[in-house]
Design goal:
With 100 residues, the chain is an alpha+beta fold. 63% of the residues lie in helices and 12% in strands. The chain has a domain of 64 residues.
């Protein structure tokens, strides 16, 4: 993001937490609104759905769910990055040896 990127203040309303302002890049506003919507859907499901739990516990479960997704994706990206680096190293070696 360069210095020219415009930013917007949006009001985040998540679960039953007091709404707060969040400064986001203008071109990512829709993405942030989507994330907030998904957080609230999950919170509603865990708080009010079958076997509903207290609000704070539901919010903690949502945080855990998203943290799990984040760290699984991060680990996968790291593995893929390493595999790509290994592949490039092997390809460079083959090119240096004149095999290709």
């Amino acid at each position: 993001m360069d210095e020219q990127t415009r930013r917007h203040n949006i009001t985040a309303r998540i679960a039953d937490v007091e709404p707060f302002k969040l400064l986001v890049p203008e071109d990512e506003e829709a993405f942030y609104r989507y994330i907030i919507e998904q957080l609230n859907k999950l919170w509603n499901k865990m708080h009010f759905g079958p076997g509903g739990v207290p609000s704070r516990m539901a919010l903690a479960k949502v945080a855990l769910y998203f943290a799990e997704m984040y760290y699984r994706k991060s680990a996968l990206a790291s593995e893929q990055s390493k595999a790509m680096a290994d592949f490039e190293e092997q390809l460079d070696k083959l090119l240096r040896e004149g095999a290709l």
